[in-house]
Amino acid sequence: MTNPENATTAVKSAERALAILELLTQRERPLGFGQIASALGYPKSSLHQLLRTLIARGWVEVDQAAGSYTLGIRTWEAGNAYLRAVDLIERARPYMEAVRDQIDETVQLAVLDGRYNVYIAKVDGKQNLAMVSTVGRRIEAHATGLGKALLSGLTDAQVVGLLHDVQLERFTDTTIAELSDLILELAHIREQGYALDNEEHTLGVRCVASPLRDHTGQVVAAISVSVPTVRWSHDVQERIIQLLDDATTPLSSALGWRPAA
């Protein structure tokens, strides 16, 4: 059971750490310890601990000789990751819209964040009954077509390392809730090139998802088409598989991917 006092302390520490990063971002120049303490009004003992943690994690750098603090390498990496995501969305949207225009269903783009898939873009069809999803939403990857397409880009060892101590939640009767079964499913996805979601996260919704690869051949995102089961059929499934292949192949090529000869 979570201790409310510990949770409150953790939230306060997170807010203070973010405030330090925001301050260093706004000032755009090195700041001394006294300047940070004066600007934020934190107790010096707490500020020392927060700065030590941020330095250890690479979010802040310290010039020992000058006694000043600046943003660390992790902020640069995070900024580049954000720019890559924005670039990916801009590149992917025309392909997503082309798929949507052909099938008139919800098309989504997601990336992997740990054991979750995170929606970063979507385009909706004009159907009255449609998949409801939100950009920014995080869902357990093992239970969605998008998530399984993303996980298929990892090796079995990486998947085991990511999920070995996680109890895979069973959302419906068809959710894959055993790691060994998921490993087998991912092998099948790698072989066929796409993932299926048979009402594994949401009853009444099925989907097909295909991975996107970059210049290194790594899976960096995935695109899916979600369809209510009342409009699902084998022919619809096959059509979506082809539409996604028509979209992800040139989009992956635009990201620098070259299939093995």
Q: Report on the biggest sheet.
A: 6 strands, antiparallel
Number of strands: 9
**Mean pLDDT level:** 88
Strand order of the largest sheet: 6-5-4-9-8-7
Instruction: Give the DSSP E fraction (strand runs of 2 or more residues).
Output: 15-25%
Kindly report the name of the CATH homologous superfamily of the largest domain: GAF domain
Rounded Rg = 22 Å
Question: How would you classify the helix and strand content by structural class?
Answer: alpha+beta
Helix share of residues?
A: 40-55%
Count of the separate structural domains: 2
Would you state the CATH class of the largest domain? Alpha Beta
Number of helices in the DSSP assignment: 8
Element order: H for helix, E for strand: HEHHEEHEEEHHHEEEH
Taken from the alpha-carbon principal axes, the silhouette is elongated
Task: Give the second-level CATH assignment, the architecture of the largest domain.
Answer: 2-Layer Sandwich
Gap between N and C termini: 54 Å
What is the topology?
Layout lengths: L3 H24 L3 E2 H8 L3 H13 L3 E4 L4 E4 L1 H31 L2 E8 L2 E8 L14 E3 L4 H7 L4 H8 L15 H14 L2 E4 L6 E9 L5 E10 L5 H21 L7
Antiparallel strand pairs: 1-3, 2-3, 4-5, 4-9, 5-6, 7-8, 8-9
Helix pairs in contact: 4-8
